[in-house]
Design goal:
single chain, about 500 residues, 6-stranded mixed beta sheet, about 25% strand, alpha/beta, 21 strands
Length: about 500
């Protein structure tokens, strides 16, 4: 191994049925370095991490870790952990029914006379969270806390295992700006202590804020390793996509930014709609062919508001009209039958059914809408699936591939295809581009604008304000579970949005 390396992966190859996931890939991580692993969905990032951590076997190549004088093979994540490799995944792998302390020390509980020493475990857990400035009661179960807090607790657990190599796989996708900054402070501290950190993220600004080096993968191959300072953002995006990349600012037809609407164009009209303890009553009108963005900090009530609009959470205040007719949605199926479609934020638990194929996942909503006595024929299912695989450019070996084998971005496209197949008048997209690559993000943004041009009313939620400014005609600003503003035209800029979120009008 090179003198300062903590991890070296050389000539790594891995094949799945019909897909070369990794082809002769090299990766080097130095001690005390934060190293971004970048690439579009399907580039091979997740596979490289799974090979390193023993989740997947690799066919050729070798892995070396500092302190071990021969190549290693991790046969399980436990093997990797024992060798000082800790991973925090985007999809949080904590046990919701266990306490914070139990989650932090699961499998390595302190013992006294053969029994778990609860006092020592709770004390050490509280100290650990205090060190990392995470506010949580270690005796409460983990499901009492937001996704953001759970993410920080998962990171605390990895940090406490004396990791030489810490892999953070999209750790910031559920965190707000102040929590991201706390994480960065922690990452820099660990870097100062000599830990090598592999940082997988799709947020370019975060890469440039915290990373020393960048390794780019594309289609399972190594594009190159670069020093962050020497790689301009435009070049990074070009290397990830394999082509020169135009500025995304021109997605929306600016001449159509100021649209005018009539009473007949109203698709959704909410008056005093709300749910106690979730969303304060709000008024909202959404027109045919309009893209309305919901913005606000994490926990501001964006997702809760659209769940109430759709009927996924039953409102207890106000009224909702869909195309002029009152709707009291007692179930999502009622909303679906009225031409509404909803792509939820949590695609793992509310979106995909992992063991089913792309085809089976794609036709779910349409089949539910038609009912059990009007089953789609196999031929219809295949025709519909093939149409959307082509339209959305879904990368899959075949329509019968289990959806869990697809990258996150391609899974997201299948779910979008599922809802487009129901031919909705009103489409809610909650964080449709979270955790997916720049190229797929652009495709989804362009699709949103195209659907609106064809007359669909769309609600679009994203944590990235620039993305919404490119795609939306109007922005609804949320704060503390309350709608605090609506912006359009010239008001739709970063400064006005930030001041509205912060409380200035």
């Amino acid at each position: 191994m090179e003198k300062n390396s903590v991890l070296e992966m050389r000539h790594i190859s891995k094949t799945f049925p019909g897909v070369k996931a990794l082809q002769d890939v090299d990766f080097t991580l130095e001690k005390g370095e934060i190293h971004a692993l970048m690439g579009e969905n399907g580039a091979g990032k997740s596979t490289l991490i799974k090979v390193l951590t023993g989740v997947e076997e690799f066919e050729t190549g070798e892995i070396r870790i500092d302190g071990i004088d021969h190549p290693i093979v991790n046969n399980s994540p436990q093997d990797a952990q024992n060798r000082g490799i800790s991973t925090v995944y985007q999809e949080i792998n904590l046990c919701p029914n266990l306490t914070v302390a139990e989650n932090l020390f699961i499998g390595r509980e302190p013992r006294k006379g053969g029994l778990i020493d609860w006092k020592a475990m709770n004390k050490r857990s509280a100290e650990l969270l205090k060190e990392l400035e995470i506010e949580a009661d270690v005796t409460k179960t983990i499901d009492n806390y937001s996704i953001a807090i759970q993410q920080m607790i998962a990171i605390a657990r990895a940090v406490d295992m004396s990791a030489k190599v810490l892999i953070l796989d999209e750790p910031t996708s559920s965190l707000d700006d102040s929590e991201v900054e706390k994480l960065f402070v922690l990452m820099r501290r660990l870097k100062g202590e000599g830990v090598g950190i592999v940082f997988v993220t799709h947020f370019l600004e975060q890469v440039y804020a915290v990373c020393d080096k960048i390794t780019v993968l594309r289609n399972g191959q190594l594009v190159g390793q670069f020093t962050t300072q020497e790689l301009p953002r435009v070049q990074l995006v070009a290397k990830m996509m394999g082509k020169d990349f135009d500025d995304l600012a021109a997605i929306k037809d600016q001449s159509a930014a100021q649209k005018t609407y009539s009473e007949e164009d109203i698709v959704i009209k909410a008056v005093g709609l709300g749910k106690k303890g979730t969303v304060k009553p709000f008024d909202l009108v959404i027109h045919k062919g309009e893209v309305v963005g919901f913005t606000g900090l994490l926990g501001s009530g964006r997702s809760e508001t659209v769940r109430v609009l759709y009927g996924a959470d039953k409102p207890d205040h106000g009224t909702l009209q869909v195309k002029g007719e009152h709707l009291v949605a007692r179930s999502p199926l009622m909303s679906m039958n009225r031409g509404m479609a909803y792509l939820p934020e949590d695609r793992k638990n509310e979106g995909i059914i992992a063991d089913l194929s792309v085809r089976e996942n794609m036709i779910l909503a349409l089949q539910a809408k038609r009912g059990m006595f009007r089953l789609l024929s196999r031929k219809q299912q295949e025709e519909y699936t093939d149409k959307y695989i082509e339209m959305l450019q879904i990368k899959t070996a075949s329509r019968e591939t289990p959806i869990k084998s697809l990258s996150g971005g391609n899974q997201q496209k299948v779910i979008i295809g599922r809802w487009l197949l129901t031919n909705p008048d009103f489409l809610i997209l909650d964080e449709p581009t979270r955790g997916i690559d720049v190229g797929t993000k652009t495709e989804i943004q362009k699709l949103v604008v195209k659907l609106a041009k064809e007359g669909m009313a769309v609600v679009f939620i994203s944590s990235e304000i620039e993305e919404m400014l490119r795609s939306c005609d109007r922005m609804v600003v949320m704060r503390d579970s309350m709608k605090v503003g609506e912006l359009s035209g010239e008001e739709m800029n970063q400064t006005t949005i930030m001041s509205t979120i912060a409380g200035g009008q």
